[in-house]
Amino acid sequence: MNRYSVILSNVGSxxxxxxTAGYDEPVALAELFRRVAEIPQVSGVELVGSWHVTDRNVAxxxxxxxxxxxxxxxxxxxxxxxxxxxxxxxxxxxAVIRADAVNHTKEMIDAAAELGCDLVSxxxxxxxxxxxxxxDYLQEREWFSLGVQETCRYRKDMRISLEYKIxxxxxHSYLSTVSNALLTIMEISEPNCGVTIDxxxxxxxxxxxxxxxxxxxxxxxxxxxxxxxxxxxxxDDDMIVGSVHTVETLEFFYWLRxxxxxxxxxxxxxxxxxxxxxxVRQGVLAMDSFNRLLDRVPEAELDELIRIGNAAASAxxxxxxxxDGVQ
Amino acid sequence: MNRYSVILSNVGSxxxxxxTAGYDEPVALAELFRRVAEIPQVSGVELVGSWHVTDRNVAxxxxxxxxxxxxxxxxxxxxxxxxxxxxxxxxxxxAVIRADAVNHTKEMIDAAAELGCDLVSxxxxxxxxxxxxxxDYLQEREWFSLGVQETCRYRKDMRISLEYKIxxxxxHSYLSTVSNALLTIMEISEPNCGVTIDxxxxxxxxxxxxxxxxxxxxxxxxxxxxxxxxxxxxxDDDMIVGSVHTVETLEFFYWLRxxxxxxxxxxxxxxxxxxxxxxVRQGVLAMDSFNRLLDRVPEAELDELIRIGNAAASAxxxxxxxxDGVQ
Amino acid sequence: MNRYSVILSNVGSxxxxxxTAGYDEPVALAELFRRVAEIPQVSGVELVGSWHVTDRNVAxxxxxxxxxxxxxxxxxxxxxxxxxxxxxxxxxxxAVIRADAVNHTKEMIDAAAELGCDLVSxxxxxxxxxxxxxxDYLQEREWFSLGVQETCRYRKDMRISLEYKIxxxxxHSYLSTVSNALLTIMEISEPNCGVTIDxxxxxxxxxxxxxxxxxxxxxxxxxxxxxxxxxxxxxDDDMIVGSVHTVETLEFFYWLRxxxxxxxxxxxxxxxxxxxxxxVRQGVLAMDSFNRLLDRVPEAELDELIRIGNAAASAxxxxxxxxDGVQ
Amino acid sequence: MNRYSVILSNVGSxxxxxxTAGYDEPVALAELFRRVAEIPQVSGVELVGSWHVTDRNVAxxxxxxxxxxxxxxxxxxxxxxxxxxxxxxxxxxxAVIRADAVNHTKEMIDAAAELGCDLVSxxxxxxxxxxxxxxDYLQEREWFSLGVQETCRYRKDMRISLEYKIxxxxxHSYLSTVSNALLTIMEISEPNCGVTIDxxxxxxxxxxxxxxxxxxxxxxxxxxxxxxxxxxxxxDDDMIVGSVHTVETLEFFYWLRxxxxxxxxxxxxxxxxxxxxxxVRQGVLAMDSFNRLLDRVPEAELDELIRIGNAAASAxxxxxxxxDGVQ
Lengths: 327, 327, 327, 327
What we know:
two-stranded antiparallel ribbon, eight-stranded parallel sheet, homotetramer, 327 residues, alpha/beta, globular
């Protein structure tokens, strides 16, 4: 059974490029933990380097985790939130920046270990390019793989999970699609290297998220972690889970079961204008409702729909299930 | 209450540019009618010029309509299916082609009138351009409006409805979006000129289909007709109604009620690989399920969701309605 | 002949939602002016409310403008950069916010007048919605038009220009496309109300920017202002002018001439990772090169390409012009 | 130095789903060859199974190739143009169809060998799915790889090249992106298995085509063949080479050189409304102009642009090169 977690910043305030000071007041670390603890279905939390984890506050974090009885699910090192990363982290032209990217990751790995967590999820959002004739794709991708490889080798008991995204903040990311992430993992060739699927990132790359799960199963059982949200396909809108895609989210949860995914399901939303705690709560409840719906539906019926592959039969099935209330 | 109809070709065979002879055997006119009549919820049919309506078969069509007790809902003149239209119909550079576009429309208007129908739905799919520096946008758009205006003036008792689409078969269509259609209608300035919303075309233009309904209400109550299908937003996939967008389709039906739309809801799907009759049947049943769901839900509850505009509250509401089976 | 200007913030530092403190150090107002003055081809500047213009610094701004011999081209009131606008400005559910949006605009109109400028360009980026079942499209759009109308009526000698954009920061904006902007203008029905085309926003809406210029000519000669940049079509990347679209930008400049546009061409780029002054300089030089290329090419040749509309002939022409260096 | 070729059907007539009989008269095989031979820069031709190559006309084809002194560059087996493939070829649920897909490929391999050609380019356009809950991604992808593997093993002296495309005619293709194609090739694990890049397909998947070339170099030097055209990114418009993307096409040609690509450059356009021979001629001349431009530009200058990765410097360089005529 999947457990639910939240990226801690999700219950805080969001900013964008037009409103850089934030849509709401900044929320202190202690308060972020307190808010997450208000959602009974949540048993874990995900932290971001620099934003939440520094080399000096591990003890404080341990205290919060224990106080609220929350499991640390993963740390996301900061490879995107400081000016030094602006032209890349692992794939930067500057050797000192590349070394910094690796070192910061190692620090976060140590922090994770100390906090009883075995997963570090990398989102190298600044590794990529914006313009044509700007990047030496071969050289930069090689640097990227070497750097990540070094972090994988640092501690074999820590799982390093790569979160792909086709664009933003760069117009083109190196770690772009599920298949590109798998190629990178094969190149890195370390057993503790896997993939984080962000449901919305998969949609942005015109992937069917359920098929992305299947691909990770097929090529080495590499699904390590899941971030949940929703969007209108063209951009990473980071909306409340299930608010746009009903059947597609259901198919995603179905394939998580089918492939035996045992990891966490983490909320990754950007509730710019919403009460952030309520938005996260609804995201969690949506995940729970999708799972409980799958509990009620005989698995063999869904297997059979796929076996015959008849679109009219599937349409009939989901119409009755979702619209007619025949559950 | 809305009534359901079908574009006749939808129960036949489809082709595409790689399989021009069709994914299935061609289906004769009589058989198309027979198939439509097999769906009890359907009481009307929509015909396409050239494909179904010629200047010689009106009597035959009347016979089929009467035999199967089907209402003719609209005729879609052929402004797209013959080589002569390849560079445009109403907006063609050639005066003789422009006149032909108008004349064919008048013939279809007469045929519609004779068959007891008061709606002709124009889809000028070849009016547009493919390349930059190819079109004189001002001149061609003027020809377009003048031509359509002439058809509106031909018979004041016939409603002429413009179906917009942002692209395909041209890379750029003139009648591109709901707002562009409204501008064109204002220019034409005839009371019998309105708009056909194709649900999928709205999605392709990054419109929220429910908002497109509202815009047509706002600017002169111009929604004359509706074509239903679904897609993945980027292209006019013409899939079974409701197969991708659940909440968005529900919002569309809600706004049809809210704005007092009394017209037909017509299936416009391209079931390339499906049993076409079964695909249409499922599309019709989906429309009916969306409508019946709205019958069960207190309208005041949905009005209230919109009044407060709280995304978390809406997410909670639709989660319970669609996933938890609380109806 | 067009004159070139710059939105003042373009030579400063940019932030995004992941790096909210900015990719570079903040740049003081005086320094921003000094930088713009370093580009000899630039003779005007565009200011943003709150960011650059307050109710107390008009005298200071006048001093800078005079010192650097820069014309104030427009003021863009702040309807997007403070938390109070998060659920809309002119279209907000709250009457007090709507009044605030109007009042702030009037203040900016007064400031513009005092600084010898006759254009205020509105970008109501927060007016729209994110989720389905969130907005009363009819009510909110009515509020929007009424508010803008009030600002148009405030001073008839000030031109109010509406900048449309299909999304961001909302997932769906009300002022979405060139045609929607024209509908809104017709509703507002004031002669001093027009449109600002942002080249990149047009691309994001799958418009051909040159056609957007033609549409504004056709429906009342309403092109008041132009913002220049470039992108990969799917998102408002705000890149250097001409860096992606060569022929399309040329066609845009050609249609500006053809329709007699006499206004300013303003750089609107977000140089997150670039030396911002150099990025703006290249944008300006690109605009100048497009214009000088059109000076060299006989206008009759381009007119003829459009008259015949032959894609192969156009391809041949631009290949020779751009690739073969036959100019 | 690259040599230029043409897919034979490109000089014929095109159809689409609305005009299935074709935008022009059908063109006989002999005439297609005669037309290609009219373009002096073209020295090769690519043929399509069923459309051009049958089990009975190899002698006739040999005669044409010799008569017009054209090299057979590749055969594209027909896995998309007959109703039997409608639910897939290599990945079909039906074992007999899967066997048929393999057998037809073997026949085309034999035909290619007999005609002195060492490349067969597979475009398995019907292998994929349209709806969610329709496909067993694991099973179908396994069938796909096994089938292609069998064709690779059939004759080791024949190169089998996989052309990826993210969608159309299915809403989702299995062989979707350059990275997915590489994963598939690694799974197949045969040295004679590579990739065909279609420039437009790369754009449709939000790839930078030049980076796709680099990826194929990086992971095993697997670029076997290139199809050239252009589009507006969102769909496979199959327009004349260079008609939309100038700098991006130039970067693509630059990376072909940088990675030592020695293969053919084949036109793959769909000139629905153009004189098809003239459209192909312009496509070929565009390829030649891009190559000749690269001949004139010192390679070290472009290498340096990439080494420093300064967007403003690149913008300056290409502005002078393309717009200012400084070559």
